[in-house]
Specification:
The chain has one domain: Alpha-Beta Barrel (TIM Barrel). The chain is about 35% helix and about 15% strand. It has 15 helices and 13 strands. The strands form 4 sheets. Strands 7-8-9-10-11 form a 5-stranded parallel beta sheet. Strands 2-3-4-5 form a 4-stranded antiparallel beta sheet, with no helix packed on it. The two termini are about 15 Å apart. The relative contact order is 0.16.
């Protein structure tokens, strides 16, 4: 399929929370205790809450910067593309990149909201979490209906409250809740504990997907303190592999048959080995371990219950039928360092070269829409949703690569959207 003919819905993007997020959303008694932005002596702007200082890490907001400037240094808002934190600019960037729909994970609260969960005052923690969810659903997603899949933060410290929040958000059209790869590493009961049953039940009842993002467990796979950072980046998907095994073999899968999980930013190339391994494990050991999937193999259950997600994964695409063509979804990962924005359609077209159009459609948008109950065509015609149409709509929106210098972006390289559109004949 040509890139201009694709329809792209990304199940993993990120947002950098704007400084005004909590304004007017907190109960009066908690207004002074809400998270806020402060500027440090070095010029970086950081969030502060509950005594913690949370910087906007450089790798989290590098869209539009040359790769040689990627890093993990704290950043200020004027060092980022406005599309990182401004919803109107985000939609312009989505159009320029040909992306129709986006599901955005949080940044400073942590991928699973653990910053809020650690506050001793649980009434304040609840107020902050609900204020965040309302802002995300009503303001961030609600500003552009049909362009965003809403996602809520969980309430980790009280599974009953978490269930209530899932139901509240589902009534507002939110059918995704971000969650940790391993609650035990955060000091909460493990996946195997009955503690979480109210949350599992609410998610099952509401058709809410548990979206498990890599790096959300508070621990990352690292071999040694002095190992190159490349080791950590390479091994990040192993966290998701561990979470998949933990959940698949848990009683949760058997006792909540309608519950579904997404393995966000975990890649797909490892999945065929994983499914072979779980089937082999089951065959050789279930008689003494007590595992029982009835008439199904573990690999069949995995394909029914887990959405697998990739950014650019040529091996995964080649092995798509071993993975399961109905449980693969695409990610853009804007504005993180793994994203190929604004050229993701071209990259994806190369990766999917030779794949039948109907299978490309499943990967690029149909599976995501089905899993997350998302229907962009309620708001736009199909013809208005293609990469080519969105880029034409973006007009001359600037997508040039810019280098940061003394608090300002300076143009260095990159083509205008006009030249990109001309190449695509749109």
């Amino acid at each position: 399929m040509k890139p201009e003919d694709m329809i792209l819905v990304s199940v993993d993007d990120h947002l950098v929370e704007p400084p005004t997020l909590f304004e007017g959303r907190m109960p009066t008694k908690f207004a002074d205790d809400a998270p806020r932005i402060i500027r440090q002596d070095d010029g970086s702007e950081v969030w502060t809450f509950n005594g913690a200082i949370v910087p906007n890490i450089g790798l989290n907001a590098v869209a539009g910067r040359p790769r040689e400037e990627y890093g993990v240094e704290p950043t200020a808002f004027d060092e980022m593309r406005p599309g990182c934190y401004d919803i109107h600019e985000r939609v312009k960037d989505m159009n320029a990149g040909g992306v129709l729909g986006s599901m955005c994970f949080p940044s400073f609260p942590g991928f699973a909201g653990r910053l809020f969960a650690t506050h001793q005052d649980k009434d304040l923690a609840l107020a902050v979490t609900q204020a965040y969810n309302d802002w995300h659903i009503d303001d961030w997603c609600g500003s552009y209906p049909g362009r965003f899949i809403p996602m809520a933060l969980p309430i980790l410290w009280d599974a009953e409250l978490c269930a209530t929040e899932i139901r509240r958000n589902a009534e507002k059209g939110c059918h995704s809740v971000t969650f940790t790869e391993n609650p035990a590493t955060l000091g909460f009961p493990s996946f195997h504990d009955e503690y979480w049953d109210p949350m599992w039940r609410a998610a099952s009842d509401c058709g809410t997907v548990i979206s498990v993002h890599l790096g959300s467990s508070g621990k990352i796979t690292m071999t040694a303190d002095n190992a190159p950072i490349d080791v950590m980046i390479t091994l990040q998907p192993m966290n998701i592999c561990s979470a998949a095994a933990d959940l698949l073999w848990s009683r949760v899968i058997k006792e909540f048959p309608d519950l579904r999980f997404a393995l966000s930013e975990g890649g797909t190339g490892w999945i065929p080995y994983f499914t072979d391994r779980i089937d082999r494990t089951y065959e050789m050991h279930h008689l003494w371990t007590g595992q029982d999937f009835g008439t199904k193999l573990p690999s069949e259950v995995f394909r029914e219950r887990f959405l697998t997600c990739f950014i650019s994964d040529p091996i995964g695409v080649k092995l798509r039928h071993d993975i399961g063509i109905d449980n693969i979804a695409w990610e853009c990962d804007y504005p993180h360092s793994d994203s190929s924005w604004p050229h993701a359609p071209e990259e994806l077209a190369e990766v999917t070269a030779g794949v039948p159009d109907n299978e490309v459609n499943k990967i690029t948008y149909e599976n995501a829409c089905r899993w997350y109950q998302f229907d962009p065509f309620e708001h736009r015609t199909r013809q208005q949703c293609t990469v080519g149409a969105l880029r034409a709509e973006a007009g001359d929106h600037d997508v040039a690569t810019r280098s940061f210098d003394h608090g300002r972006f300076e143009r260095t390289v990159g083509a205008s959207l006009g030249s990109m559109s001309a190449k695509l004949n749109v």
